[in-house]
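Notes taken during the Thursday session

The instructor put the following on the board and asked us to keep it in front of us for the whole hour. The protein is Allantoate deiminase. We were told not to look anything up and to reason only from what is written here. First, the residues (419 in total):
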Amino acid sequence: MTQTLPSAAVLGARAFAALAGLNRFSDEPGKLTRLYLSPAHKQAAEWVKGAMEVAGLSAFIDAAGSVQGRREGTVPGAPAVLIGSHIDTVKDGGRFDGNLGVVAGILAAQALRDAGISLPFPLEVVGFGDEENVRFPTHLSTSEALAGAYNPAWLEARDSEGVKLGDALVAFGGNPAGIAALARKPGSIQAYLEVHIEQGPVLEAENEPVGIVTAINAQSRAQVRVTGVAGHAGTVPMALRKDALTAAAEMALALEQIAAAHELAVGTVGVFRPDPGATNVVPGSAEFTIDFRAPKDATLAAMDAEIRKRFGEIAQRRGVGLEIIPYARAAAVPMEPRLQDALAAGIARCGSNLAGRRLPSGAGHDAMAIAAVAPVAMLFVRNEKGISHSPLENMTEADAGIAIRVLIETILELAEQAK
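Then, after some discussion, the predicted structure tokens were revealed:
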């Protein structure tokens, strides 16, 4: 059955050519910045839609801004196999994060179509638009739409320029009123598969091109506002200051200490904004974000309690106000054992030299949202030094080809199981 399918080498070359086309679309010249509902996102969505149609999928851009494609199967009413990832990026991001998974799904669908292979279930590919959640304070909003868990309050959220998400969605060509209808019916998806670069160093360290994800870590995000008293940098004595920036800085260091004390946990302050931000003014307020993650929900809850306690103690000692505003929280998401085994079978079909290493994901993915309505599994692909969310993000054409071939073989494994 698989003799007419393209080799991993051919698939890798096709993937890199496709990625070069997709990654032309950026909001910043000389960088890859493609934020949700931006002009570059719109261009990329149209490109993905066209690529899906070339691959034999019926495609459209949905009400929330995701791109969906579908090829019908031979068994009427059979639940679909859905392959997905995202096409939005962080600011000045990498070429492969998210984009690889979308391209992999398209190329897998195209290879199966070209080989004349019929499947007993519909095959779908989706390119989500809001996985990174950089522009608006949302959480996996476009995949949550398919999961029927879209929060209508997100439509009122504003970006750093004051643009409301709902308005940006309308300008993009989406339809806020149509988001609820995107929710998938229970039982309509038999498997969600996502191919993604590892964004970590494990596979490279073990010289393995691909690995099977066991679970996605629990995570929480919040905005923190510290309010002190602004004053003249030259006239306010140190003992009388209520410096919001130094209080916030101490809180950031406390987060680092809390995360380091919990096994496999991490904590990050990614945004830090003092106000008024003048050289000769004691900052009167400071805002920053916190992002903390752990393999277990209980560990995350313990970290949350400790963060609130430590931040509160710092604020009280320094005489400043404190507000912690959570805006995203996700429980740990285990991958479906049956689908992990299907990926292992797909890897075995591709050669005995592949170990099929199993490992957890410290990063969040759209699979977290889809897990509420379907069994999910992820295939990690080795990336250089584990660097991601950076223009230094890199991987090989050979590894991309292996990953896509594994994806194809996994789809064929699921087809055999359906007989």
